[in-house]
Write a structure and sequence with these properties.
303 residues; alpha+beta; Alpha-Beta Plaits; four-stranded antiparallel beta sheet; 9 helices
Length: 303
């Protein structure tokens, strides 16, 4: 029985020679595999960073208590005292309507000028409250918000739970769309890889027949073609990672220039090791499946 290391050297050596000989056809298969992984990986990249944003947003522990228009000084003081005496509170600050407008202009520079066209400032005065870390969970935050909302002079107490939940649905939908589109292009990549390897199988069918006649096992006969598919998939995965890294860097630069206030909540980052392995593995799997399909199609033609 042939040793494993010798068998692998033989298969991959023959595979590399075959791919170099038909490098144009092989390059098309590599590019289509890379394209499918870029589509799939791009959606994963965006959804992964959005998940990080939502996690930090959920855990930052901010509650905003909005006061009613025309609230009295005594109502403001009573609300401040109640907030200050709450053991769950880490810190809080009062934000007047004018201060809220100024902060809106600072955070959203492109939209801040819209306030100048309004007769009255629509932004209410509020308390911005930071909850202690051990109370930063959905149940505790909602309970605190409901309690403060019942105080005299308070119009509403808002924890951005509904917004977070809707965004989470959007992230899950984004993952689904990415999986569908990436899967569709990956099927096209498998078909292209199968066609490339099928050409190689047909071109060397006499050699394959001779190998079988002299007693070569199917693992030896098929090994080089499976290796060709694996190499094409591996190269496609690597190329996809390079493209995605470039897109990620450009995207981070673009968002940073925009100066979005959400940047303080999330550290934009590239894939982790698990996602690296996932994309490379999908590429290799696509190549191997394409090789198996190609060999099966070539065998059926000979029969």
């Amino acid at each position: 029985m042939m040793r494993t290391d010798r068998y692998l050297r033989l298969c991959f050596g023959e595979a590399l020679r075959g791919l170099v000989g038909r490098r144009r056809a092989a390059a098309s298969a590599v590019m289509i595999i890379a394209l499918s992984l870029v589509v799939l990986g791009g959606f994963l990249l965006v959804s992964d960073n959005l998940n990080g944003l939502l996690h930090r947003w959920r855990e930052r522990g901010h509650v905003q208590v909005f006061l009613e228009p025309g609230f009295t000084v005594s109502q403001q003081q009573a609300a401040a005292d109640a907030i200050r005496e709450s053991p769950e509170i880490d810190s809080f600050r009062f934000l007047s309507a004018d201060q809220a407008a100024a902060q809106f202009r600072e955070d959203f520079q492109q939209l801040g000028d819209l306030l100048a066209f309004l007769e009255e400032n629509p932004l209410p005065a509020s308390f911005v409250i930071t909850v202690r870390e051990n109370f930063r969970n959905e149940g505790a935050l909602l309970s605190l918000a409901e309690g403060w909302e019942a105080m005299p002079g308070v119009d509403a107490a808002q924890y951005d739970l509904e917004v977070i939940r809707r965004l989470e649905l959007g992230v899950n939908g984004l993952r689904f769309v990415g999986a569908v589109l990436g899967g569709a292009v990956l099927i096209a990549a498998i078909i292209t890889t199968a066609n490339v390897i099928r050409v190689l199988v047909v071109a060397r069918r006499r050699e394959i027949i001779v190998l079988r006649l002299v007693g070569a096992t199917e693992s030896v006969v098929r090994g080089r073609f499976l290796a060709e598919g694996a190499i094409q998939g591996f190269l496609g995965g690597l190329f996809a990672l390079v493209v995605l890294y470039a897109i990620c860097r450009i995207g981070v630069s673009f968002v940073t220039v925009g100066g979005s206030p959400l940047l303080s909540l999330v550290e934009l980052q590239f894939f982790n090791v698990f996602l690296f392995a996932q994309l490379i593995g999908l590429g290799v799997a696509a190549g191997l499946i394409g090789a198996l399909l190609a060999f099966g199609a070539a065998d059926s033609l000979e029969q």
